[in-house]
Amino acid sequence: MRAARALALAVAVLLPAAATAAVNAPAAFAAQYAPGPEWAVPAPAPVRHDPAKPTAVVVVGAHGAEGSDTLAPYEILAATGRFNVYTVGPHRGPVPLTGGLDLVPDLTFDELAGLVAPSLVVVPALPDVGEPSTAPVTGWLRAQAERGAQLLSICNGAAVLASAGLLDDRPATAHWMRLPSLERAHPEVRWVHGQRVVDDGDVVSTAGILSGVDGTLHVVERTLGPAAARDAAAAIGWRHWGTGTPPPVTTGPAIPHPAAIVNAGFTWDPPTVGVALTDGVGEIELASVFDTQAWSLASRTLAVSADGGPVRSRHGLTFLPRAELDGAAAQLDRLLVPGTRAVVQVADGPAPEYVHRHGGFAFDATVSDLARNGDVATARWVAAVLELPTAGLVLDGPAWPWGATLALFALVALPVAALVAVLVQLARRRRTGSAISVTSNHRQDPRPVAW
């Protein structure tokens, strides 16, 4: 009986917090790949093809792909100037990258087949991996493998290759948080822990998100030589290449950091961070803002452009905003502008914040910005998710997400206070009832009194 009462009290205390987390956390994760509005698809950008160059393609699925997994390899390969580089997908239409950055693929699978057979295929993480909707992608990947294309999986793109049967009895790696579940789902793969890049000849796989930078540079070095890889690393500001010691890989239990749990579960009204899309912006610069904000689980991003129309990135990718800047300004809490040279004019709303003004690797700036304007614990969680090395990175700001934590305490403390008040009242009634009973019994005692 006492155990049942204790359980009931525990449920009463924790139920409000659990119910809040059950609503907020799925919404925070779902927002990362929420589809955009039904925009008219813009005319395709001219496809420039040099038959003297090898062709590399980055695959996206019908429901999108992880932003940095997609855009970092794309920019690295394009920066070499020695590949034809395209994004390809099962159909031509905008697909969401992490945080709501809508990309229009350059080519469909059929259009690519009419142009060239790619020699390098980059596979990012897909949000619907293992679902029937990925069948066109996995079928196409099997066809590319059969004809001898080099495959490069980024992060949980390894799960896509595994679901296609292309990693059977081969070593491979993936994101540190996903490896345990992948080991259970695909025991036929020889999963490797603690390594940023696993080279198995015609299949190269990488660990968490920005390990894909190292994996892409590795493939560039293998294909074009050390000088090309060194120049590509310098072009994007990746200071960890060629140091002789690879950056460390995140290790630990495959669960979110407590700060992430608090942010996802108890941020009731997430701030809306506008991200201004401008022509000529770097692909990694774009990914750095959307991914950093999305993985904080504490904000929502809204892609905007000056006229509400599409923009072309530095190397020719097409992105669609979800709103026109001036029309959306009133609902924005911040306005971040990716790019070292971008300039944005806004009539009302928050002032533009140019997060990449000082150059360097784009993610160093956005994670440092997250620490200053959010908190250090969340910034460190995001760095771990991204596999961004933090040695030499300045993370100054509040130590912890106190706002969301206070919301959690309130959800627990209020039921506790109510229960304590009820228990105190019950105890008083019992004492009062006992006193009345004792007095009543004393007055009605029929036994004779001894004199």
Automatic annotation (TrEMBL):
Pfam families: DJ-1_PfpI. Keywords: Membrane, Signal, Transmembrane, Transmembrane helix. Residues 1-21 form the signal peptide. Residues 57-214 form the DJ-1/PfpI domain. This is DJ-1/PfpI family protein. The chain crosses the membrane at residues 399-424.
